[in-house]
Structures are given as structure tokens and as C-alpha cells.
User: What shape does this take?
Amino acid sequence: MSAADDHGATGRWEHFPHDADIGVRAFGATPEEAFVQAALAVMAAILDPSTVRLEQTIDIVLEAPRLDLLLVDWLNALIYEMAERRMVFGAFEVKIEDHHLKGRARGEVVSRSRHAPAVEAKGATYTELACVEDRPGLWRAQCVIDV
Assistant: This one.
């Protein structure tokens, strides 16, 4: 489901069906906001992000030649950090400038009993990949997540 029921609002996300995987589609007033929402959509496919305590901060710095590729790299960096650190995240910050992304993910070590993860995200893919401005002030960032 969506983070917001008002489809006129920016700063929201949704899941869409894709075979055995999960599509994430995020919207924001800026690419940065759409990237934050995409990260929340990935987390929401795994668990309820509101259950995550914001105890630790992980900084992520990336570079890619296009926004859509930067989106895949951003989501894959988060998935990598979740696996490597055994963490889950509940809040994100993103700044994008000249093909460079500086991001921050806040979360905690996963608690299987409290978080009850539904699936394990294996990676963001290029399937249905897009990062476009659908209309002035409404950016859409989407891709399929391999679970």
C-alpha cells in the first residue's frame, strides 16, 4: 500500500506486482525526496519501518552518470548495508549534486521477533527502472527489487 492515500501529494511510495519480485515506485517533489521514498518502500516490503529505532547512522556516498543508475546504486547500497551489518533502516536523507549522492540511513540491528521481516531483499534491478519528472515538481523513481 501507499504511504499516503492522497495521490496529489508528493513524498509517497507504493508497491507494484512483478512476478515473484516486488516493484517499488516512489514520488517526491525532488529526485532526493523520491529516493528517500524509494528507500522507505524497500524497507516497507521487508517490515514496518515505523518499528525501527533510529539508533545508528550509516553514511553512503555514490556516483553514477544518470539518476536512474544512481537510484539502483542507492537501493543496492542500502540492501548491502542491511546484510553486512544485519541492520534495518527506518529513516533516510539524500542529497544529489552533479551525479553524486550523499545519503544517510538511520536504523538498528534487526530483531527477528520485533521486526518480523517478511522477505529478504537481494538487490535492486534494472527492471522497470525509471527516475523521471512526470510533471513539474513530481519526480517518480522506480525499479523492481529481487526478493
